[in-house]
Amino acid sequence: MADDLVEIVRAGDGDVPAITALVRAAYEGYVPRMGVLPKPMTLDYADVVRTRMAWVVRRDGDVAAVLVLEPHEDHLLLENIAVAPNAQRTGIGDRLMRFAEEQARALGLPEIRLFTNAAMVENLGYYGRRGYRETHRETVDGRHRVFLTKRL
């Protein structure tokens, strides 16, 4: 997908129902593997949109993806990236990953950190191909998390 076909805009209150539905659809396939709801499925997206840097990708007027970032003093946390199942493998995720790096640079932050569940093995490969390296693993709230970082 060409970058000029991707409209990335700050999420607003009106996007909350679409974001909530998109996250559920994007993550529900992992529930049997994990035995617990993935953390993004448990969040209140009205609160997320109000308190974090939340962005959506619109495609044909619909929300096709969401990106949630949280700046910290020495890094940008990529809290969530989710692409609607019907928009996966179109390049939207790649564009959002580059967008996150652009945001970190604009904020003067030298590093992006994220975590994923160990059961989401596809994500580990995806992030690894984009230059992220694993820093550690830990279990939080019954979720086996893998923490990754990328220096910019």
Structure write-up:
This protein is of the alpha+beta class. The protein has one domain: Gcn5-related N-acetyltransferase (GNAT) (Aminopeptidase, 3-Layer(aba) Sandwich), CATH 3.40.630. 31% of the residues lie in helices and 35% in strands. The protein contains 5 helices and 7 strands. The chain has helices at 16-27, 31-34, 45-51, 92-106, 121-129; strands at 7-10, 53-59, 62-71, 76-83, 111-117, 133-140, 143-151. The chain has a 7-stranded mixed β-sheet, sandwiched between helices. The longest helix has 15 residues, at 92-106. The protein starts with 6 loop residues before the first strand and ends with a strand. The relative contact order is 0.16. The mean pLDDT is 94.
What keyword list fits this structure?
152 residues; alpha+beta; 5 helices; globular
Summarize it.
By secondary structure, this protein is an alpha+beta fold. It is built from five helices and seven strands; from the N terminus they run E-H-H-H-E-E-E-H-E-H-E-E.
Q: Low-confidence runs (pLDDT<50, min 5 residues)? A: none
CATH top-level class? Alpha Beta
Strand content: 25-35%
Distance between the termini: 24 Å
CATH topology: Aminopeptidase
> Which structural category do the helix and sheet elements fall into?
alpha+beta
Q: How many strands in all?
A: 7
Q: From the alpha carbons, calculate the radius of gyration and give it in angstroms.
A: 15 Å
CATH architectural label: 3-Layer(aba) Sandwich
**How helical, in percent, are the residues?**
25-40%
Provide mean pLDDT, rounded: 94
CATH superfamily annotation: Gcn5-related N-acetyltransferase (GNAT)
